[in-house]
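Running co-folding for tryptophan.
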Amino acid sequence: MTEQTSTQPTAKYRSDYRKPDYTITDIDLTFDLNDTKTQVTAQSKVVRMGDNADAKLVLDGDELELVSVTVNGEAWSAYAKEDGHLVLSDLPAEFDLTIVTMINPEANTALEGLYKSGGGFCTQCEAEGFRRITYYLDRPDVLARFTTKIIADKAAFPFLLSNGNRIAEGDLDNGRHWVQWQDPFPKPSYLFALVAGDFDVLRDNYTTMSGRNVELEIFVDKGNLDRADYAMTSLKNSMKWDEERFGLEYDLDIYMIVAVDFFNMGAMENKGLNVFNSKFVLANPKTATDSDYQGIEAVIGHEYFHNWTGNRVTCRDWFQLSLKEGLTVFRDQEFSSDLGSRPVNRIANVRIVRGPQFAEDRGPMSHPIRPEKVIEMNNFYTLTVYEKGSEVIRMMHTLLGEANFQAGMKLYFECHDGTAATCDDFVQAMENASGIDLSRFRRWYSQAGTPVVAVETAYDADNKSYSVTVKQQTPPTAGQEEKLPLHIPFDIELYDSKGEVIALQSNGKPVHNVLDVKEEEQTFVFENVAEQPVISMLREFSAPVILEYDYSDQELIFLMIHARNEFARWDAGQMLLAKYIRKNVAVVQAGNAVELPEAVVDAFRGALLDENLDPAFIAEMLTLPSENEIAGWYKQVDVDAINAVVGALTQILATDMEDELLAIYRSLAQGEYSLDHAAMAKRALRNKCLSYLAHTATGNDLVTAQYAAADNMTDTMAAMSAANNAQLPCREAQMADFSDKWTHDGLVMDKWFMLQGTNPAENALENVRNTMNHPAFSLKNPNRTRSLVASFCANNPARFHAKDGSGYAFLTEILTALNTSNPQVASRLIEPFLKYRQYDEARQQLMRSELEKLSVLDNLAKDLFEKVQKALEQ
Ligand code: TRP
Ligand code: ZN
């Protein structure tokens, strides 16, 4: 089932890339589906590429039973089975290769390759799962035309799906039937997909900008048809948006999406046949929250946008993953921003980069967005490749502007459509189309770590000039000591005391507000600055860096009110909070009580009461940074002090603003439930108010009333989270009621599991262990595992890091189980251990000894091996 590692797994290096000796132009697959013995026949047209007539054909294969090998119709014996490979020799320059393998989908708990989810069959081939189906050149630079015939029992599996168009079908006499599919677009094996099962289907259609009709089909488990509408709406919105903003049209006559319950990640962009984690398809107001809806829109968009950025132009090798992922995340973020609130989306994305992505940069797995060395590719579907990758694309967008950026996209498709490209090909297209020099900018692709940008300013009243000195420096990261200066787009604005913008000028000429920071140290001098200005910097988070500047409280409060864009106002609020969180962590460590000046509370009160602001934006203003994000500010983390400070600040804000919070809470009560953005925004602020009010005397009554009255999951969950976080007396009854109502529905129960995982109660771990016996829980299902176990280990730091090491022992137990059943999920769960060096000596020792236990596990999977080894050697 999992990789047998009698020998140590070996690493691959980006610099070792070589073109393949052979390619496969066409592959004709036949699947005879059976739960435990599925026979796969793969007939390929193979062509030698180089001029080495002795070149062997080295096919990848994993967990396969080889039945037969035929070359040009004759049984072939010139082959050797090596570890993970089938090596064929004495081959002609061009030939037909037929390989028959037998696989066991039911035993496939890793959910990679062909596996069973619920009653149906499905596949997951990215990154290297196709080799668990047949021996093949399982690398993204081999592009073949696929034909797929699926044979299965007709009653159990009425729907037999694969990529492209359905070209033939028929019945067999033993109650079985078959369907054949043909995908006209050559593609790498990682984009192959097969699904077989019984579903309800939501059908619709879309007319493209050139007037072609596309059939749209969403396949869901029987009985879930009433939860597929929003996914369909999002799909049609995605298709339209990509035409309008990027000029890109869909290219097949059919687009299918299948929702499955057992899935390792969010979703997969297989050509014409996306497979989705059901979490990102299924929603109705009774089962899904507003943030679930937003997630569906983003992920449907993301996978759809891959059709051009990923499928039409794919990656030459897996080191280039950010070519498709960074770019596609950028596109899905722009989609959500164009359809909804741009500032609120930007804030959410920046929180992810500043929190978990910066944390990744500091840890032992730190890597550039284009990694240099990989042991297990699945370990590199990271926040760095995806989210920082998107920030790198966004910086190019900032430097070039929309028109030049779109010209670059156009050129990129002209040069690389239908091929497997590199990150450098993309940057080259942007450079060629815009004429803007991106040579130093390219370092973002090779350099890991988070740059620190320290700024000093000086106002010269005599000369009416203002100077801004910017120093950049990137601290060393695991395996990369030396760092070079980067090209940083540094977006600034200056304000006078009335809050008016001061035009930027130097040497008598206007200066663009995005400064090109390229050197280790640079000074920018602005003229005609009539008075000491207030500077707003790194506007829109114009680069993924840490900004250091000594702002006064007054300046931050000024920016919270006067900065022209909402993101900058939010960011000023976050900087103000950060100052007082740091201050109070020291206060708590000295044994004193947390304090917050009245002026600071008033600044947040001002935001709360500002009627010109979008309520969803106000909710963001009032959101404290997470304990994990705060932990990232410290060389040595004091989990307990951070937890105490966040709790105390929440309490102070709640108490001091109680009247205003209550008034806003009441004023935002809604009649008819609606999913439009304005209604969602009001719920967001109303429920943010409730989360604070839960910490006041009326909290229990308000939360109880909201839970009882709620006609939608957003309000239900807001009540339950408030009760959970504030440990209200009403919590227990609500939890029992919810579990009674939803035990049959794992996806809905995930919300409940998440509350158990993040329960602040002293005995949270004991509850989590008990909850693992809940009938809706299963460690075999990645969503369940994440909602309960990962939420405890990753998002309940005060309890996970309990001094007695009980949280650590628990994680090791879980990892040991998952190492054999699903190493990909295990590898994501282990993350909290990788940060052990950031804790005190006692906790470090405890975590380190858990890592050591893991390192000597029998059959340690490559996924965990790579992380454990890096963590221990760091
Ligand atoms: N390419 C997918 C996406 O970002 C993600 C993906 C990679 C994936 N590997 C996977 C999904 C394994 C599921 C399982 O859209
Ligand atoms: Zn993707």
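Result summary
The chain has a mean pLDDT of 98.
DSSP finds 27 helices and 34 strands in the chain.
Job closed.
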